[in-house]
User: Fold this.
Amino acid sequence: MEMSEIPVVTSPAGMAAMTERWRLAGETIALVPTMGYLHEGHASLIRRAREKAGKVVVSIFVNPIQFGPNEDYASYPRDLKGDIALAAAEGADLIFAPEAAALYGPDFQTTVSVAKITQGLCGTSRPGHFAGVTTVVALLFNLVRPHLAVFGAKDYQQAAVIRRMSADLFFGIEIDVAPIVRESSGLALSSRNSYLSPQERAEATVLFQSLRLAEGVVRSGERDAGKVIEAMRELIDGVASSRIDYIAIVDPDSLEPVTVIDRDVRALLAVYIGTTRLIDNLRISPDPGRP
Amino acid sequence: MEMSEIPVVTSPAGMAAMTERWRLAGETIALVPTMGYLHEGHASLIRRAREKAGKVVVSIFVNPIQFGPNEDYASYPRDLKGDIALAAAEGADLIFAPEAAALYGPDFQTTVSVAKITQGLCGTSRPGHFAGVTTVVALLFNLVRPHLAVFGAKDYQQAAVIRRMSADLFFGIEIDVAPIVRESSGLALSSRNSYLSPQERAEATVLFQSLRLAEGVVRSGERDAGKVIEAMRELIDGVASSRIDYIAIVDPDSLEPVTVIDRDVRALLAVYIGTTRLIDNLRISPDPGRP
Assistant:
């Protein structure tokens, strides 16, 4: 058996049976739900799961129902062979890689949706997106029944939505959110970075630069969220290939907009670089003593 | 310990911990979800669960989110003490009777909804009703994690909706639907029968009479669903206190309307008797050799 050998399960029934056996044997199980095309950001999630649970399941599923009709479902990058190698190298115990038709049969008609916290931010730009996410995550939670699920902080609103859904429906699953992994340039790792030309890749660093700028402006005393956003907008508008989808400064839990920055907040943004939509976010503390 | 003694759990965490222990001990668990005010119909569900599983949980919860603003949430009959005695006498192992605030906290904002099969029939008369049902059932399924859940056929559309939701979200729970229990008059047992005056109670038998009439008409050769419905309508309209909400003849699985009765169908109806809305249904087979 090679080091990179790892079971790849494609059938929902097979998946459920496997983790049921583990659970009855007293194992703790972690799930890392992904859309594949795994990078070092995902690797960090798998390592985190590895530390916390006896068995680690990585799901790889490009979920059609979370893409809008004009979005990149068909072109979303896929590399199952590379994904299997990466997940195995990071110590995952099993890969769940179902076909779309295995999860969504012809009579499928159920939706799990979350109200308030999905409005605004990415929810405004991508109607239906979060209902697609919470539906597939609920379904994966039921198939795998993990004790723990690990998500990345790059999709900050998604993590908050899933935490809400999981708590509201009493899934009894710990939702763990791991820090964003960045290139040395500051660019947050994303499978969609593969869409960028070399020049766009350089220009895409403006997302993180604008977050750092916001942090600096707040640290030097600015408390007006509108003014902080204005500074970010100016910086980003200086990049010709950029088009801002949104910039927001919000409460880190409710995701409600904050107008006066008198406590820790989260700055979030979505920006098109050329035709590629990228997102990023950063915790910003008005207290300069905090990291 | 008296024969009628039985643990009553009110906290969600306590409920989840109890069945987790049973599951790890290898028990099979059945859930009978009810809104309380238990009658012989519920008793038959508990007995059915008792036959099929080692541990039987009866949940008693008048679920506010499945009632419309002008419906009878506040006045819905309640008798927890009587319910505990009945469930214990039928051999239930545990009662789960949470407060509404324990299931729906102030930040609750998640909905589980089913599309096609909730349209029409009760879904038309009671907008939002089935989303309230599927949301609370998903939540109860997660708290109890039963192997089996037993529902009554009186709420025929509800059972079909729950079966769809459970399959779509891969709950891995067997959905068992038990036959309707009737008084000797033919009236289907319902907690809402308690709203009826003695005279209304007699008049309410027209629901089942109309179903029997439909069966007879089909057995004597009528295949046109419209004509069968017309015969039912005429019979019911003869009762002064009645007001028909709907009468339908549908495919037993998809609940799509049937126009030509060339196979087994389900006849369903909802009728107000005075101010009380009652429902009933019957399988109708065009083959006179079948029961």
Remarks:
- The interface with chain B takes residues 12, 16, 23-24, 26, 103, 105, 107-117, 134-135, 138-139, 142-143, 164-165, 168-172 of chain A (CB under 8 Å).
- DSSP finds ten helices and ten strands in chain A.
- The longest strand of chain A covers residues 242-250.
